[in-house]
Design goal:
The protein is an all-alpha fold. It contains 8 helices and no strands. α2 runs parallel beside α3.
Length: 198
């Protein structure tokens, strides 16, 4: 099997064009009343699957790849697997980007809900955060409800990721808690700041 490439791992690096070089010429026109259109292509296909043919050898390399070490596998198989894996990662990242974009767009379209008046234990903690985010949203091009929903989503992702042992999620959960305490401290009434933050 002639090739211009240097041998890799002691094996020749074949070319697909070798399929056409190893086929016998199609039958002469005088043997056939009308020559078949794809006779040369059919002959090349048949010859490439015979023992020693181009496609026969590629098929054998695929079967040997299951039992060979990583260094013994043919280069074209490694390249195909790498290309397929990278394509899958790109498709997954594209889908994740679309999902994140749709989620953030949905968060920004959340209608404003009536915030609690700050009564009760949950209102003591939740109301100052809502007030702080509403004050900050007045300076931004986003609804206060969207900021509140994003704050809740950040806390949830940090909590769940922290349970799974993700160090970044644990840091995010810590920063979420510190940020929540700072918002409660700054927006709570002056007489009850310490109690609300505590």
């Amino acid at each position: 099997m002639p090739s211009n490439d240097k041998p890799i791992n002691g094996q020749e690096n074949p070319s697909f064009l070798d399929v056409l070089n190893q086929t016998p010429p199609p039958p002469d026109a005088k043997d056939w009343p009308r020559p078949k259109r794809f006779a040369g292509l059919r002959a090349a296909w048949k010859a490439s699957w015979e023992e020693g043919g181009f496609l026969y050898q590629r098929w054998e390399e695929v079967f040997q790849a299951w039992h060979a070490s990583r260094h013994e596998v043919a280069t074209w198989i490694k390249a195909t697997a790498l290309f397929g894996g990278l394509s899958l990662i790109v498709m997954m990242m594209n889908a994740a980007g679309d999902i994140a974009s749709a989620t953030l767009k949905g968060l920004s379209d959340i209608p404003a809900t009536s915030a609690s008046d700050g009564s009760g234990l949950w209102g003591t903690v939740d109301h100052p955060i809502r007030v702080f985010l509403a004050d900050q949203a007045a300076h931004l091009a986003v609804a206060p409800a969207a900021l509140y929903a994003f704050w809740q989503l950040t806390g949830l992702l940090g909590l769940v990721g922290g349970f799974f042992g993700n160090a970044g999620a644990r840091i995010a959960w810590l920063l979420f808690g510190i940020g929540s305490l700072a918002m409660i401290w700054s927006a709570a009434p002056a007489g009850g700041r310490a109690a609300a933050t505590g």
